[in-house]
From TrEMBL:
UniProt xrefs under Pfam families: polyprenyl_synt
Family: Belongs to the FPP/GGPP synthase family.
Keywords: Magnesium, Metal-binding, Transferase
Statement: the UniProt record of this protein carries the keyword Signal: no
Region listing for Disordered, in residue ranges: 1-22
CDD domains cross-referenced by the UniProt entry: Trans_IPPS_HT (cd00685)
Classification via PANTHER family: (2E,6E)-FARNESYL DIPHOSPHATE SYNTHASE, GERANYLGERANYL PYROPHOSPHATE SYNTHASE
Gene3D superfamilies per UniProt: Farnesyl Diphosphate Synthase
Entries under InterPro entries matching the protein: Isoprenoid_synthase_dom_sf, Polyprenyl_synt, Polyprenyl_synt_CS
Protein name per its UniProtKB record: Polyprenyl synthetase family protein
Length: 367
């Protein structure tokens, strides 16, 4: 897909700047809260299986305790994946509770990746507080991440059903793709140029694969056939790409007080995110100047001493070259593709409406 062809069509407002209908937002909030309510007790019980001090380190990561070990009501994340796993079960005609083991397993894998990613990326803040490696050290971040991945498979396989085996296969494939995506992401940081196609492949692995799994795993546990599970997986994959496109916008232009990350977060990490690669694929003075700066950056191992003005200049060049607008368009395109994947799936109309509403939420957010 070329930068030019992907930019054709009617202009759209950047996805994270749109306003959703209050009623729809309230419905999504209720779905997210349901996912949290049903999955958190099982998630906590799983974490309690870990040997000390991994159990307390994991509890800190999930926001259940502070660095001193005191109980807290910290931000434990958006809980999009658990909500999708429960709706997935409902799409297959099962009760939402059937999707709980899948919701917990996906959430464990997601947080395994966050623990490792924060360490590899050098991120010191997540959800408005210090990351695990910053508080407890790199070794604990690695160990707890590994333990969460093992727990995810344990939670599924101990169900002891044929459906649990099918669900585990989907989870392990998604995890392998997620790791592939992280490896691609890291390799891109040391390259001067990355194509839009390469970036979309990376983001499809790193974000799309696990969200796709969340959207199918509940259905599988609820007894859905492969065709239904595959259609829900396609919905989740494209929803993941929309989700990541919005994340890429927020990674450059997001408000730190809302996102919980530093200003120009992705630029500080030299990430070749969608706005960057789309800008580089464009023509014009801004794209050319951006390419020169990034080529110089690739030869300079130290980027931490850049001033705020230098990061702001790079962000401005990306926007002038069209990278911000292109990424917003791509978020909307992936959103539409996700919804179209549900066309052939027979499911309760309320569940379909909920899946549509959550897809809207993914591309209309500020964090």
């Amino acid at each position: 897909m070329s930068q030019k062809s992907a930019s054709e069509g009617e202009p759209v407002t950047p996805a994270h700047e749109q306003l959703a209908a209050p009623q729809a937002q309230q419905g999504v909030t209720a779905l997210l809260e349901r996912g949290r309510t049903l999955s958190t007790p099982v998630l906590r019980a799983a974490v309690d299986r870990l040997a000390p001090p991994m159990d307390t380190v994991a509890a800190y990561h999930f926001g259940w305790i502070d660095a001193a070990g005191n109980p807290t009501h910290g931000d434990s994340g958006k809980a999009v994946r658990p909500a999708l796993a429960l709706m997935s079960a409902e799409a297959a005609g099962a009760a939402p509770e059937a999707g709980v083991p899948g919701a917990v397993a996906v959430e464990l894998v997601h947080n395994f990746s966050l623990l490792h990613d924060d360490l590899m990326d050098g991120d010191e803040q997540r959800r408005h507080r210090d990351t695990v490696w910053k508080v407890h050290g790199p070794a604990q971040a690695i160990l707890v991440g590994d333990a969460l991945f093992a727990l995810a498979n344990e939670i599924l396989l101990e169900q002891g059903t044929v459906e649990a085996g099918r669900a585990t296969r989907r989870l392990t494939v998604a995890t392998r793709k997620l790791i592939d995506g992280q490896a691609q992401d890291i390799s891109f940081e040391h390259r001067e140029r990355v194509t839009v196609e390469e970036c979309l492949e990376m983001e499809g692995n790193k974000t799309g694969a696990l969200l796709a799994c969340a959207c199918s795993i509940g259905a599988v546990l609820g007894g859905a056939d492969e065709a239904t599970a595959d259609a829900l997986e396609s919905y989740g994959y494209h929803l993941g790409l929309a989700f990541q496109a919005v994340d890429d916008l927020l990674g450059i232009w997001g408000e730190p007080a809302v996102t919980g990350k530093q200003t120009w977060s992705d630029l500080r990490q030299r990430k070749k995110s969608l706005p960057v690669v789309a800008a580089l694929a464009a023509e014009g003075e801004a794209a050319e100047r951006l390419g020169e700066l990034l080529a110089a950056d690739a030869k300079n191992p130290e980027i931490g001493d850049f001033s705020e003005e230098e990061f702001a200049d790079r962000a401005a060049l990306i926007e002038q070259a069209g990278g911000r607008e292109w990424t917003s368009r791509e978020a909307r395109r992936q959103h539409a593709t996700a919804l179209a994947a549900l066309d052939g799936v027979a499911m309760p109309e309320e569940t379909r409406r909920n899946l549509f509403a959550l897809a809207d939420f993914v591309v209309v957010r500020e964090r």
